[in-house]
Amino acid sequence: MRRAALAVAGLLVFLNVPFASPAAAATQQVMMQGYAYSPAASTVRVGDTVTWMQHDEAPHDVVTTSAPVAFRSPQLSAGQSWSYTFRQPGTYQYYCSVHPDMRASVTVLPAPTTAPPTAPSKQASTAPRTTPPRTAGTGTPAAAAPATTPPPTTSPAAAAPATAPQPAVQQATAATPATLDPMLLVAGLVTGIAVLCLLLLSSRRA
Prior knowledge:
Largest sheet: 4 strands, mixed
Strand content: 15-25%
CATH topology of one domain: Immunoglobulin-like
Number of strands: 8
CATH class of one domain: Mainly Beta
Number of helices: 3
Helix content: 10-25%
Distance between the termini: 121 Å
Shape: rod-shaped
Order of helices and strands: HEEEEEEEEHH
Structural class: alpha/beta
């Protein structure tokens, strides 16, 4: 299973596909030192964590006096720390129950939201859409009236009777010579050779 996950991650990196991951939560620190909180006012977002670090010899704690969600830390000795993750926006005012003069506040802002990409608006067609008129008292469209066209105007030249079309002249096709039969050619050639042979024989006898 681990190899398959590594293979998928490598494929996504190869294809340059970004990983969809939420925004990383931040962590801020508040120091308890010199019988005071430093900084005395902090600003974080929902999901962020604040860690209080204790550096005084006397014990300190974190107790809310006015907050959307109340919380209270244990008493911290020197070198100890305590963390709290804010889940609800608002202003959190707190103090140290051991030393009431130690006061501070944390302002929690809502988590940033990413707006979804807006789809491109489709351009409306420029061609007007015609609706057939409706007849009074009924919901059915009225029949369109037949379009009337004016009679065509005739000019004197156009009124003259058209001349009768001339008959097309038939082109005489050239007579093609009749082709001779190959058998007649062979018979004539044989006859000529036979006559020539007879002539030669008769001339030798003479």
